[in-house]
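# nightly structure sweep
# worker-07 picked up a monomer target from the shared queue
# config: single-sequence mode, recycle default, output format = structure tokens
# input follows
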Amino acid sequence: MYFCSVIMENKIFEIEIKVRDYECDSQGIVNNANYLHYMENTRHEFLCSLGHSFAESHKKGVDPVVTRADLQYKSSLTGGEIFISTLTVERTGVKIIFHQNIYRKSDRVLCCKGKIEAVVLINRKLSRGDYYDELMKDYL
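# output follows
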């Protein structure tokens, strides 16, 4: 297991989450797929903090869709630990790119680093994503 202390980056949003025991595998560490769930939850909470409702936007035919997820696992989390999940966001063409990090709260060690790319579909067709540009204008 590799440990490295990292100074927490500039971020635009962060939340604290507690690891639930059922998210751990037989080795007693968080199963790799759960980091995707943690990052998805962070993106949803970020957008909710901006007044965005996924249900309402879906009713309008506006749907963000993840097209790529690149995760780098650095150090393991275990059951009961509290971690801080952070994000920043940028725009590249039609893509919205979320840079996300997960840090163990107790020692600020970087546990997982992610780059999540998404696009916006309007009525199931690729769009420029202007809806989200307006929503995240203070951060892009």
